[in-house]
């Protein structure tokens, strides 16, 4: 059995799609699955079971990337084609069943949109795939499982970024004597490139030897393994936030101009802190330290109660 799964360009959307893939793997355990995705999201699927191969769709002028995809897959007959980009591509290849998500903005969470495509209610939660080598590297980088707070102070858009000094203050409040995560250290995560490095730099400088700098240093399966070792993740709306939620780590997403009703973290232990006036473009500075701290404490208390 062959399945063609056309996923997303961005990491966050790709992570959200992993729940559907996990459902397909469990339903058709002997199927060979080809995943098409954008270059930055490739690592999301690198450790996926039943993955026959990954087709990287690097965007090209005049939509030439779709032609390249067609040339790679049109020679086979597919049992199932899932297209999460809402294109006409599924009708250009031979397939027994086609599932194409509807384009345009829809009400509700993105996860519900994905589940509805296959008639799944509730929709399957995202998963994070990583192997023993990834776990070993994570253990070397972060010795002492559960004694780390992962911070994601970066994003792909500066208006989504909570002020660096508040990340620092939140970390200190959570790790002070008598606090929920007393004595924990920080793992600072972010994507590659100078923009994300600049966003993370003030947090790294302020925390000094209490923080490990992992910004842009790891492949996505290694990031997932690192997140799985942490007692808590706090970060802006980003692919890292969604990946953290997929690992099962308690995940607090910070929201300003993002659409929290559509992109809140989806996982077993998640929460959000939303700026007043969200999703206004200038709303993120309005998210106070007190609001974020209260949300983090509630999330940690719920974990203990569970």
TrEMBL record:
Superkingdom per UniProt: Bacteria
GO molecular function: glycosyltransferase activity
Listed EC numbers: 2.4.-.-
Keyword field contains Chloroplast: no
Top EC category: transferase
Protein name (record): Glycosyltransferase family 9 protein
Keyword Glycosyltransferase found: yes
Species this protein is from: Paracraurococcus lichenis
Gene3D superfamilies assigned to the protein according to its UniProt record, in alphabetical order: Glycogen Phosphorylase B
